[in-house]
Each structure stands twice: as structure tokens, then as C-alpha cells.
């Protein structure tokens, strides 16, 4: 199996063991442009769920002390959970595809 395929797949699978560190290291160490592209995509996909955290925090602060703030915070946590599960599934699929590339 080709080293490029293994590194590209591991960038996506790193969501389970080193979500930010591994793709960054591969991006700066790899010489192959395809591997760098996979590392960049994997890193960006690992960051997607964290976009919901500031939204939930701002909503909770805006409605602090009221039921609306509580509801917005709960919705933000729900969105974070859904995004996290979606990103994990997407990374597994992309990791398998990266390993199977011709």
C-alpha cells in the first residue's frame, strides 16, 4: 500500500486519536500535494463542530436568567452533538475513500 494513501486516510481517522495535531503535522511534513490537501480537509472537518459552541454561549449570555437563554444553550449543545456525529461519520467515509484511491 502507498504511503500517500495511508497518511491521507490517517488524517481523517485521526478524529479518534489526535484530531488537530495529526493533520497539522502531516500538512507540514508531507511532500505530496494530494496528502497535504487531504490533511487540510481533515483538519477543517475536525473544526466544524466547534462552530456551534460560540453560538450557544452567545445565546445563553444574551438571554441570561430567562428561559430563552436556557433553550438557546440547549439547542446549541444539540447542534454540537449532531455536528460531531456527522463529522465522525464523514471522516470515516472519507478515510476509507482516501485509502481506496487508485
UniProtKB/TrEMBL annotation:
- Residue ranges annotated as transmembrane are 6-30, 42-64, 70-93
Alphabetized Pfam families for the sequence: MamF_MmsF
Alphabetized UniProt keyword annotations = Membrane, Transmembrane, Transmembrane helix
Q: How does it sit in the membrane?
A: Multi-pass membrane protein
Q: Where in the cell is it found?
A: Membrane
Name the record gives this protein: DUF4870 domain-containing protein
Q: What is the lineage of its organism?
A: Bacteria, Bacillati, Bacillota, Bacilli, Bacillales
Amino acid at each position: 500500500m502507498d504511503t500517500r494513501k495511508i497518511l491521507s486516510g490517517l488524517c481523517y481517522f485521526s478524529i479518534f486519536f489526535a484530531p488537530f495535531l495529526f493533520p497539522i503535522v502531516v500538512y507540514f511534513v508531507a511532500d505530496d500535494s494530494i496528502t497535504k490537501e487531504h490533511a487540510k480537509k481533515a483538519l477543517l472537518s475536525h473544526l466544524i463542530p466547534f462552530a456551534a459552541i460560540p453560538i450557544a454561549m452567545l445565546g445563553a449570555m444574551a438571554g441570561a436568567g430567562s428561559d430563552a437563554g436556557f433553550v438557546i444553550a440547549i439547542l446549541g449543545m444539540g447542534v454540537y452533538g449532531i455536528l460531531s456525529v456527522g463529522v465522525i461519520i464523514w471522516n470515516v467515509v472519507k478515510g476509507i475513500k482516501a485509502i481506496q484511491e487508485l
